[in-house]
Specification:
The chain is α+β, with helices and mostly antiparallel strands. Strands 2, 4, 5, 6, 7 and 8 form a six-stranded mixed sheet that branches. It has a two-stranded antiparallel ribbon with strand order 1-3. It contains four helices and eight strands, in the order ααββαββββββα. The protein has one domain: Ribbon (CD59). A hairpin with a 4-residue loop joins strand 4 (about 75-85) and strand 5. One of its GO terms (biological process) is positive regulation of canonical Wnt signaling pathway. One of its GO terms (cellular component) is plasma membrane. GO terms for molecular function: acetylcholine receptor inhibitor activity.
Length: about 180
């Protein structure tokens, strides 16, 4: 047998293998996001979230659904990931939401239809790129404190109490024989 048919088969198989590999890589990188999404905002502090409703997978949502600037009332990006019992994606929903919609993130047990639902929220422009798949991913991540009343005023009070206590303790220690 001549060597050229074997070489032709080898080249054809390597081309097919490369094509299959290209078809399967469907996740976005941060570079893709920066390229696809300009950074100008309609108002100061404006941000975008990926938005879609009951699409079949994450790729369809992130690539084809509109990523919209959120209204001023919204502050977070929300993701709902519905999976079959074996972990395959059934549906994906993403949108802009207010704080109340983010207070119950996490995963449900498998329901009577054999589906598990995980939800997550994040703060920041197009931060809802990945899907939550388990309790580790299904979280509420923020870049700023949620409750402003727990900020510096109370920590200054606690620091003052600690300093006064330390001073009184050292005075008491010095006066003992």
């Amino acid at each position: 047998m001549e060597p050229w048919p074997i070489m032709a088969w080898g080249l054809m198989l390597s081309a097919i293998a490369g094509w299959i590999k290209t078809v399967q890589s469907r996740d976005f990188t941060e570079k893709d996001i920066i390229f696809l999404h300009p950074s100008t905002t309609p108002y100061p502090g404006g941000f975008k979230c990926f938005t879609c409703e009951d699409v079949p997978d994450n790729y369809a949502c992130n690539r084809w659904a509109p990523d919209q600037y959120c209204s001023r009332e919204s502050r977070y990006c929300y993701t709902l990931h519905k999976m079959s019992w074996d972990g395959n994606t059934v549906a994906v929903t993403k949108r802009c939401v207010a704080l109340d919609d983010c207070l119950s993130t996490g995963c449900t047990d498998i329901d009577h239809e054999g589906n598990k639902v995980c939800t997550s929220c994040c703060e920041g422009s197009i931060c809802n790129l990945p899907l939550p798949r388990n309790e580790t991913d299904a979280i509420f991540s923020t870049t700023s404190p949620i409750n402003k009343s727990l900020q510096p005023k109370q920590s200054h009070t606690l620091l003052s109490v600690c300093i006064v206590s330390l001073v009184l303790h050292s005075i008491n220690f010095e006066t003992q024989p």
